[in-house]
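REVIEWER CHECKLIST
Item 1: Sequence provided? yes
Item 2: Single chain? yes
Item 3: Sequence as submitted:
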Amino acid sequence: MQHLKVGNYASALFELFLSLIGLLNAVYYSRKRNYDLASTTILVLMVTMLSFLSITGGLRGTGLYWIYTFPLLAFFMKPIRQAFVWNGVLILSILTLYWLGQQGVINFFYNWLELRQALGAYMAVLLLSLFYSLILNGLLRDLKTRATVDMLTGLHNRAFVFDTLAKLIDVVKRKKDITYCLAYLDLDNFKRVNDLYGHGEGDSVLREVAQIIQESFRSGDVVGRIGGDEFIVIVYDCRKEALLKRLDSIRKRIEGTFSKYGLSISYGVVTVPAEGTDINMVLKLADKRMYDMKRRKKELNYPQEEKE
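Item 4: Structure as written out by the authors:
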């Protein structure tokens, strides 16, 4: 509006054009939720606008002051490395425009002293933005770890596993050609470890069991502890027969490793979507099959399990 008041119609139209693109970008993001593209578009618009203000001087020579907003915006919208690249793009763009002004190709509003002082202050804002971003990213990583990781075993925790399962079931409902398997695992006779050897020894056993289970699956599969001595594994692109063989191998390894404690493991497997697409029903079915296995093992004269 200020450009219109002083009769600078070209600048006003250019800024209006960039604002329109920014508005369209906001509408696009609200519908598609493509954050990477939307944030990149905003930074491109900002580089264009700030370069334009550096050439023209903006309103009464104040255009260059707006470059100080860019480091904060870049570090807010992009990871640290990408933010550095974007800041480099802006600085290189302004320096290139200044050089073109010196060659007489364009009219650059600011002299070298003004530009040098502005870029010096810009670097100070850039370093402060970097420092703030490093601290914030560290805190966010800490929060994410606490929210998704079981502190005792290092596996995914209950909230993460159930949230992941709910999302995968939603995907399966839309794409019928995808198959997942849910395995519900429970240690047999674990209470005996705590009672006879103490909870410290019990925690150590749980960590070792968790490592055995995790090592038995691919990095893309989800392995989690959902409480006590209970574990859940979500296996992608699963064949049930192959998974049952793998779980039997885990059972034998646990029985061999922890023969001193008389430990074993029982499990139940459900295939999604073939055997259900309701999260509660899937979990109940897997739990039921796990307890059926416990009962069969008792009938086959496995060591009697004490009630937890």
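Item 5: Key structural point noted by reviewer: Strands lie at 180-188, 222-227, 230-236, 264-272.
Item 6: Recommendation: ____
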